[in-house]
Design a protein that fits this description.
478 residues, Rossmann fold, FAD/NAD(P)-binding domain, 16 helices, binds flavin-adenine dinucleotide, binds NADP nicotinamide-adenine-dinucleotide phosphate
Length: 478
């Protein structure tokens, strides 16, 4: 009901447009670029500025996607073509909420699109979470992928047993990086500091602990299959988890059935759970189900991570919606390294940026941003993980970005966008606010430098992980 009222209020506003439609997209990840791409494709006279807090573009395509999955990064080629077009301009090194506020940006544009992703990770909220030896997947991924804030993480890989908490694709990425032979990683764009640390790593076993069962895993079959094929690495899954599931297989939707069949076949055939086929000296990984961490226990002598206290769960309900019911029984899982991989989190980037206080998501309907009264805010939109929460692969993000572009186009056509009151934002950023902005050709100079450094080591690139060094290259190349 509230929304209907809001729509009426929205539709009654008018704005006549002269000159190009001016749009500002905040965030240069897949959401930002795909929204811009669709706007440029759909609207003849449009100009899109894509702002990012980093001097380098592409968000999680650079800082998230695993180094051994270079094909996933091919979308960068499409983004580059777009960024070089006249209708589009990348403005890097500008943080919303840090360098410029939303209220300062909006008068320069007909529409502003929030696409700043999910910049934090969820926490378990259990005792001991900050124990030395415990890391978030976001920081671990950021460390091997060159995210400036995590470049110095230097995780302790001196023990043999690692646990990853969570059964999503990020958890599999992290486990795969820990267990893949370094000879393979050396030819990827993984940062050299991480390759060197992984070469020294003594981690031999990685256990992925999930709070629900085999029918609720969030990872996908391609990524699971890849894990089962890791060289010199066995897969350990207890087949007893599947006893009650086998009879349900034919009822499952196809993707769920196929992934369950794969886990089952691995559990029954590929490895003897009792351990008598375990290859000597090899590595292993496995899945544990129905376990929720309730405490991270440290050694009384060293203060370092000693074990995870897990509560055993049962499930109530079926399929994806099955709920965890704690049984009151506990077990301890000894480990030397623990990585929490239970999802990312969208955070508020400024007091004037609408944000759900619990989820961090920008309240919206199909990408049109809502205020506290659930009325549309004219000319304000969102796209990507700020719109949906931190779930979905790049393809999902692309489809949702297209939806946002479509509603912007609709609102433009119906004359409901506010008319810009001010001129080019670049002048304000550079001259008034003193921001050292980075253009796309500046990024291309950083890019060339990274590729050159990579070539010397037989890698696609050696990422620069220090912001000052990035800016030095920008200044020297101008
Ligand atoms: C570890 C990991 C691996 C993944 N691997 C895959 C994969 O292999 N295949 C796949 O299809 N999907 C993968 N995904 C999912 C995919 O990365 C997401 O669907 C997609 O990146 C979401 O796009 P986004 O633009 O919303 O967010 P992001 O990619 O996070 O982009 C957000 C952008 O906003 C910028 N930003 C943040 N705050 C501000 C601010 N205050 N001001 C200005 N700019 C800001 C950031 O610097 C960033 O460039 C992976 C996700 C993760 C976490
Ligand atoms: N190769 C790829 O295509 C690729 C690679 C990486 C990421 N991605 C995508 O990026 C998105 C994010 O991935 P993600 O792995 O971060 O998130 P995710 O897919 O949402 O998985 C999160 C996992 O953490 C568990 N979890 C959440 N809260 C928990 C808690 N409090 N205690 C214990 N476990 C908890 C979830 O279990 P419940 O189900 O019980 O909540 C789930 O197993 C996904 O869409 C993913 O597919 C894709």
């Amino acid at each position: 009901m509230l929304l209907t009222v809001a729509c009426c209020r929205f539709a009654s506003s008018t704005a006549s447009s002269t000159g190009p439609l001016r749009v500002c997209v905040i965030g240069s990840g897949p959401a930002g670029f795909y929204t811009a791409h669709q706007l440029v494709k759909r609207i003849d006279d449009v100009h899109v500025d894509i702002l990012d807090k980093f001097p380098v573009p592409f968000g999680l395509v650079r800082f998230g996607v695993a180094p051994d999955h270079p094909e996933i990064k091919n979308c960068i080629n499409q983004f580059t073509v777009l960024a070089r077009k006249e209708q589009c301009r990348f403005i890097g090194n500008v943080g919303l909420g840090q360098d410029v506020g939303l209220a300062q940006l909006r008068p320069h544009y007909h529409a502003v699109v929030l696409a700043y992703g999910a910049e934090e990770d969820k926490e378990l909220g259990i005792p001991g979470e900050d124990t030395p030896g415990v890391y978030s997947a976001r920081s671990f991924v950021g460390w091997y992928n060159g995210l400036p804030e995590h470049r110095q993480l230097d995780p302790d890989l001196s023990g043999e047993v690692g646990v990853v908490i969570g059964h999503g694709n990020v958890a599999l990425d992290v486990a795969r990086m820990l267990l893949t032979p370094v000879s393979r990683l050396k030819t990827t764009d993984m940062c050299t500091h991480a390759i060197e640390a992984l070469a020294r790593s003594r981690v031999k076993q990685v256990r992925l602990v999930g709070r629900r069962g085999p029918l609720q895993v969030a990872f996908t079959i391609k990524e699971l299959r890849e894990m089962t094929k890791l060289p010199h690495c066995s897969t350990l899954i207890d087949p007893s988890y599947f006893h009650s599931i086998k009879s349900l297989l034919s009822e499952l939707p196809r993707p769920r059935r196929r992934i369950t069949e794969l886990m089952l076949s691995v559990a029954e055939n590929r490895y003897d759970y009792r351990g008598d086929k375990r290859p000597a000296g090899g590595k292993e990984w496995g899945l544990s189900f129905l376990r929720s961490p309730v405490e991270i226990v440290s050694s009384p002598t060293t203060g370092r991570l000693d074990s995870l206290r897990l509560e055993i769960n049962k499930l109530q309900g079926t399929w994806d919606s099955a709920k965890v019911v704690p049984t009151g029984e506990f077990e301890d899982m000894e480990c030397d390294l623990a990585i929490r991989s239970i999802g990312y989190k969208t955070v508020r980037v400024g007091r004037d940026v609408p944000c759900d206080p619990v989820t961090g998501i920008v309240p919206n309907v199909a990408g049109r941003v809502l205020d506290r009264n659930k009325s549309y805010i004219r000319g304000l939109y969102c796209s990507g993980w700020v719109k949906t929460g931190p779930v979905g692969v790049i393809l999902t993000t692309m489809n949702k970005a297209y939806e946002t572009a479509e509603v912007i186009q609709e609102d433009f056509r119906s004359g409901t966008l506010p008319e810009p009151e001010r001129g080019d934002i670049l002048e304000k950023l550079n001259n008034e606010l003193g921001v050292d902005t980075v253009s796309f050709s500046d990024w291309e100079n950083i890019d060339r430098h990274e590729v050159r450094e990579g070539e010397k080591k037989g890698k696609p690139r050696e990422k620069i992980v220090d912001l000052t060094q990035m800016m030095d290259i920008v200044h020297k190349s101008r």
